[in-house]
Design brief:
- Helices cover 30% and strands 30% of the residues.
- The protein is of the alpha/beta class and 204 residues long.
- It has a single domain, classed as 3-Layer(aba) Sandwich (Rossmann fold).
- The protein has a seven-stranded mixed sheet with strand order 3-2-1-4-5-7-6.
- 40% of the residues are buried.
- Bound molecules: S-adenosylmethionine.
- The site of S-adenosylmethionine (SAM) has 20 residues, from α1 and β2.
Length: 204
């Protein structure tokens, strides 16, 4: 266990942090397409393991409908408390396990540093579900722990290789891909060897 499991502390530290670059990139890619043919209806994004909602709130700010899911009531409470009142009507929240949740049809699925908590079977099932739920032209974006992350030696975590992640994304066009490996610190200050795959991918 690391202090990342002190979820209320984690949410307190991250609630005011900016969105991850992967979600802002995905939003920009949709916006670039909109200039050619703007959709009549707002699009739906699902944020898997939303935490205090740094990504969900950016999606709302950009006009999206958002379904934000987390196992922790504290996460959903923090997200709702930090969401501007004008954006709340477009926010739906759910306390649920993403490993056993049936995803609705949607345009964007975001998962920022949350999938490592799934066991291997739930991880694979969730990736299958993502491919099934995304409409053609929809996108997946997120930050996924890689197999050289320090957490990979802990059986409580699932940290696939970048090659395995690419394999799962065979039905996607990879629009942005970055592997980050460094000795850094976690949100609550613990030193940690980080290996992250940062990806934005478009469903074919
Ligand atoms: C490291 S935090 C990241 C939160 C947020 N995405 C961010 O980037 O700030 C991981 C989040 O995933 C949630 N989580 C872990 N396992 C989950 C599961 N099986 N289903 C839903 N949420 C889960 C945790 O409660 C936590 O809020």
């Amino acid at each position: 266990m690391t202090s990342e499991h002190s979820w209320p502390d984690y949410y307190g530290v991250t609630v005011d942090r900016p969105p991850w670059h992967t979600v802002t990139e995905a939003i920009a890619l949709f916006a670039a397409e909109d200039s050619a043919a703007r959709p009549a209806e707002p699009r739906l994004a699902v944020d898997l393991g939303c935490g205090a909602g740094r990504d969900a709130r950016e999606l709302l700010r950009s006009g999206w409908l958002v379904l934000a899911i987390d196992t922790e009531h504290d996460a959903i409470d923090a997200l709702r408390a930090a969401t501007p009142s004008e954006d709340l009507p477009r926010l739906d929240t759910l306390v649920a396990d993403i490993g056993s949740f049936i995803l609705p049809p949607c345009d964007l699925i975001n998962a920022s540093v949350s999938f490592q908590f799934l066991d291997a079977a739930a991880y694979a099932r969730t990736l299958e579900q993502i491919a099934a739920a995304l409409k053609p032209g929809g996108r997946f974006c997120g930050l996924l722990y890689g197999d050289r992350d320090e957490a990979a030696s802990d059986p409580a975590y699932t940290c696939p290789s970048p090659d395995a992640i690419r394999g799962w994304l065979a039905d996607f066009e990879i629009e942005s891909w970055n592997e980050r490996e460094e000795d850094g610190t976690m949100a609550l200050g613990d030193p940690h060897h980080i290996h992250l795959v940062e990806v934005v991918a478009r469903r074919r």
